[in-house]
Design brief:
The chain is built from seven helices and no strands. By secondary structure, the protein is mainly alpha-helical.
Length: 201
């Protein structure tokens, strides 16, 4: 019975590690802009939208949404960035990428408003910002879940695994790996974290 538990746990660990390594190699768009200065919200708005007439709070909310979906710091995003170029998904991952999520979110908003605008017409970050504001207002979004139930779940899972593996050879190493993975999952479930200017806009 223990051997079965061990086989299942090893498979889960292997799958999660493979997923983490695979995703980790394609998602950090920030690496594409090593020379780009990271701006804070005020600097971004003053530099690109101060004379636009667009409301500051809405611009920042939308930039935070983009940053969250693309998993990159909001301060590195620029209005001229193109979703099909500078911010494009890696080949083969188009349907599991934040750009696709943004397109779906915009398409949903346009459908609710009965707009004739097509998402294919939205080429840049600036296009997205202006379109969202025009068809908005856009509600602030909170990307975090309460930390207590998340941690409680992780602790319960860890305790159960400690019990199941107490007589398994090499259990300490396996438990250390599981603990690391659970920590990673807690951070991811908590939301955007450092990737956005404000976790709750």
């Amino acid at each position: 019975m223990i051997d079965m538990y061990l086989a299942v746990i090893v498979c889960i660990i292997g799958g999660v590690l493979f997923f983490i390594l695979l995703r980790g190699g394609i998602l950090p768009r920030a690496k594409r802009f090593p020379e780009r200065e990271e701006l804070n919200p005020d600097e971004f708005y003053q530099k690109y939208y101060e004379t636009s007439g667009l409301p500051k709070d809405q611009v920042i909310v939308i930039l935070n949404i983009i940053a969250y979906e693309l998993e990159m710091p909001a301060g590195l995003i620029r209005p001229t960035d193109r979703f099909a170029e500078e911010l494009a998904a890696e080949p083969g991952f188009e349907f599991d990428d934040g750009v696709c999520g943004l397109a779906m979110e915009l398409d949903s908003l346009l459908g609710q408003k009965g707009s004739n605008v097509q998402t294919s017409e939205i080429l840049t970050v600036d296009d997205f910002v202006r379109c969202m504001i025009e068809h908005g207002p856009v509600e602030p979004q909170c990307y975090n879940t309460p930390i207590l139930p998340v941690v409680a779940f992780a602790v319960v899972v860890f305790i159960v695994l400690v019990y199941l593996l107490k007589e398994v050879k090499g259990a300490k190493f396996i438990l250390a790996m599981i603990f690391t993975i659970l920590c990673f999952i807690v951070v991811k479930i908590r939301g955007a974290g450092k990737w956005v200017w404000h976790r709750c806009c």
